[in-house]
Specification:
The protein is mostly helical. The protein contains 9 helices and 2 strands. It is 45% helix and 2% strand. The protein has a domain of 101 residues: Orthogonal Bundle (Cytochrome Bc1 Complex, Chain D, domain 2). β1 and β2 form a beta hairpin.
Length: 177
């Protein structure tokens, strides 16, 4: 290894969230200067980026929900969430079978269904308990797309027949005993 690289690896440096005598306020980490713009979709309002309005979870998805958003959410969900929560979100997955400490919950349970969308967004954005954050893998729009897709999964498992379009209702009556 070159001596320069060696010096960089072994340099003195404070650890995140620890104290450091280097700065006057004794903190190792710096507060961003005023008017700093977030690198996380800076054009979107903070409520959309944070999933919170006045400290409360957003109670609706703040983006326009259309076919494209749902398809993006479906694609991202299958890649980033299904491994643990299962392809239909019911918590049934080979990974879940091995996570004995805390099993990834079903996202179709009445508890999770009662969550405001902002709470699901926050779980993806910040992580939740043993679940890591997916903020680096998913942009703000993609996180909301995943939330929309989770809602679609919830609906797909318990939509009242009367709420379906007539063609589908007819098909159900023809196929179900
Ligand atoms: C590595 C496995 C894993 C992956 C991947 C994963 N989760 Fe989780 N998730 C968990 C576990 C475990 C918990 C429960 C954590 C706890 O209670 O400590 C959880 C909890 C949750 C909760 C409940 C949060 C609450 O407030 O109660 C939601 C919603 C959720 N996950 C959604 C998602 C979504 C959406 C994705 C994809 C972006 C995802 N998870 C990816 C393992 C995972």
């Amino acid at each position: 290894m070159s001596p320069n690289l060696e010096r960089m690896i072994r340099q003195e440096r404070p650890a995140s969230y620890r104290s450091s005598p280097f700065f006057a306020d004794g903190r190792a980490m710096r507060i961003p200067p005023p008017k700093t713009v977030s690198a996380d979709s800076p054009r979107l309002p903070p409520t959309v980026r944070e999933g919170l309005a006045e400290g409360r979870y957003l109670d609706r998805i703040p983006l326009t929900i259309n076919q494209a958003l749902l398809e993006r959410g479906h694609d991202r969900f299958d890649i980033y969430c299904a491994a643990c929560h299962g392809l239909i979100g019911n918590g049934d997955s080979p990974v879940a079978d091995h996570m004995t400490l805390r099993r990834p919950p079903s996202l179709l349970s009445s508890e999770v269904r009662s969550y405001p969308p902002g709470r699901i967004y926050r779980a993806v954005y910040q992580g939740y308990g043993l679940m890591p954050s997916y903020a680096h893998e998913l942009s703000v729009e993609e996180r909301w797309a995943v939330v929309a897709y989770v809602q679609a999964l919830e609906l797909s498992q318990r939509v009242p027949i009367d709420a379906l379009p007539r063609v589908l209702r007819q098909r159900i009556h023809e196929t179900l005993p």
